[in-house]
Design a protein that fits this description.
Layout (H helix, E strand, L loop, with lengths): L3 E9 L5 E8 L4 E5 L6 H16 L7 H10 L7 H22 L3 H4 L8 E9 L2 H13 L4 E6 L27 E4 L1 H19 L4 E5 L6 H11 L6 E3 L9 H8 L4 E3 L10 H5 L5 E2 L8 H14 L3 E2 L9 H13 L6 E2 L5 H6 L5 E3 L2 E3 L12 H5 L10 E4 L4 E2 L2
Parallel strand pairs: 4-5, 4-12, 5-7, 6-15, 7-8, 8-9, 9-10, 10-11
Antiparallel strand pairs: 1-2, 2-3, 4-14, 13-14, 15-16
Helix pairs in contact: 1-3, 2-3, 3-10, 5-6, 6-7, 7-8
The protein binds magnesium ion.
Magnesium ion binds next to loops.
Pathway: Carbohydrate metabolism; pentose and glucuronate interconversion
Catalytic activity: D-mannonate = 2-dehydro-3-deoxy-D-gluconate + H2O
Function: Catalyzes the dehydration of D-mannonate. Has no detectable activity with a panel of 70 other acid sugars (in vitro).
């Protein structure tokens, strides 16, 4: 058996913070897992170092399911983003090791490819509708078949999803949380205008997506869905906070716009009602925040029974290790829908050399054994951790709102 003899956490900040778990076996085989929880990075690093790594030493690295159960049930305190991100990191690293030992890419171990590649969507944004459409045209030129549209809201200084940098978007931008101001009424006026202009300019052969980022009430979300129906959105994401899964019943009563939710979910229990009642069309749980490949496959299997497809979160707050793990998952599950893809900076790509590729709007994890991602530890060591928070959001009267 490949015995685990060491495991350690590597924190690096090549433009943004990433936490990586590296597990080593007695034969020298190593595996990588992403443990990045945006804005709370060191909590997961400490959880791993203090409470998980000591329990891994001496275990058989092949026993992925047993180790998953040990860390989940054995902690007594179940679920939560910190715990489930830590478990995910271990799970990813063990799949990486199993693949390397078998000489196979992880998607082969998961049953092999169900498709030629994973269709991905990119993020087009701009401070105006015109800028956003120009950005979308650029994505079309690069071969993207699906594009998320976010634009600035007239009368508001900033909004979610609109970046200062043309090529990269990083909302975790400050040593203490930035405070943004939000107006639902202003927002609800501009999004239908954006979609009308986008269909006019971009045509109908491209999938158009939009992220509401948890900012509407269910009835407001129903209204926006209705307003966007003529423009056939691929999905509306995170229409309302989903702690109350039943809230989506109200949205469903009012619109046929497809709904996606779940990037902040940690476990299958966060999505159970949403899936069983077919209140959503896409489940966006990620490999890194929802317990790794092992648990995400369980969520996908439940979703498949109800014709709910996957649409994993894939922003740059996930390291290339997660991106690779997501692509192995995407290629192998029958009910894959789409994958979010935000390009990492050249600095991040240099720290994490990887086998995955993009061509013609699709991505492929590559056929390197394991996950197909490495870490250049010497390079990583040159980028010191820098505290960075996501913003908070307030209504115009000062009431704290969902960011
Ligand atoms: Mg989102």
């Amino acid at each position: 058996m490949p015995k685990i003899v060491a495991a350690r956490v590597i924190v690096t900040c090549p433009g943004r913070n990433f936490v990586t778990l590296k597990i080593e076996c007695d034969d020298g085989t190593t595996g990588l897992g992403d443990a990045t929880l945006n804005g709370r990075e060191l909590a997961v690093a400490a959880y791993l170092t203090e409470h998980v790594v000591p329990c891994l030493i001496g275990r058989d690295a092949h026993r992925i399911e047993d180790i998953w159960q040990y860390l989940y049930k054995g902690a007594y305190w179940r679920r939560g983003p910190v715990t489930m991100t830590a478990i995910a990191a271990v799970d990813m690293a063990l799949w990486d090791i199993k693949g390397k030992l078998a000489g196979l890419a992880v998607y082969q171990l998961l049953g092999g490819a169900c498709r030629e590649g994973a269709i991905v969507y990119g993020h087009a944004n701009g401070t105006t509708i015109e800028e956003t459409i120009e950005a979308a045209r650029e994505y079309q030129r690069q071969g993207y078949r699906a594009i998320r549209l976010q634009c600035g809201v007239p009368g508001m200084a900033s909004t979610y999803g609109v970046s200062k940098d043309k090529d990269f978007y990083e909302p975790a931008d400050s040593d203490l949380p930035t405070e943004n101001v939000w107006s639902t009424a202003k927002y609800l006026r501009v999004v239908p205008e954006l979609f009308a202009a986008a269909r006019e300019a971009l045509g109908w052969d491209v999938h158009l997506l939009h992220d509401i980022h948890h900012r509407l009430t269910p009835i407001e979300a129903g209204r926006l869905g209705k307003d966007l129906e003529p423009y056939r959105p691929f999905w509306l994401e995170d229409a309302t906070p989903a702690e109350n899964q039943a809230a989506f019943r109200l949205i469903r009563q009012h619109t046929t716009a497809p709904l996606a939710v779940g990037e902040v979910f940690n476990s299958i229990w966060d999505a159970k009602t949403l899936i069983e009642e077919q209140l959503i069309d896409y489940i966006r749980a990620t490999v890194v925040h929802a317990g790794g490949i092992t648990h995400l496959r369980r969520i996908a299997a439940l979703a498949d029974l109800y014709q709910v497809r996957t649409g994993c979160h894939g922003a740059t707050d996930l390291s290339p290790v997660s991106m690779a793990a997501a692509l192995h998952f995407d290629l192998s599950v029958p009910n894959f829908g789409i994958q979010e893809y935000m390009r990492h900076t050249p600095e991040t790509d240099a720290v994490f050399p990887h086998a995955y590729t993009f061509a013609d709007g699709m991505m492929h994890p590559g056929d390197a054994p394991g996950l197909g991602v490495d870490i250049d530890e010497a390079l990583a060591a040159g980028y010191e951790y820098k505290r960075a928070f996501l913003p908070v959001n307030r209504l115009e009267d000062g009431t704290l709102w969902s960011w």
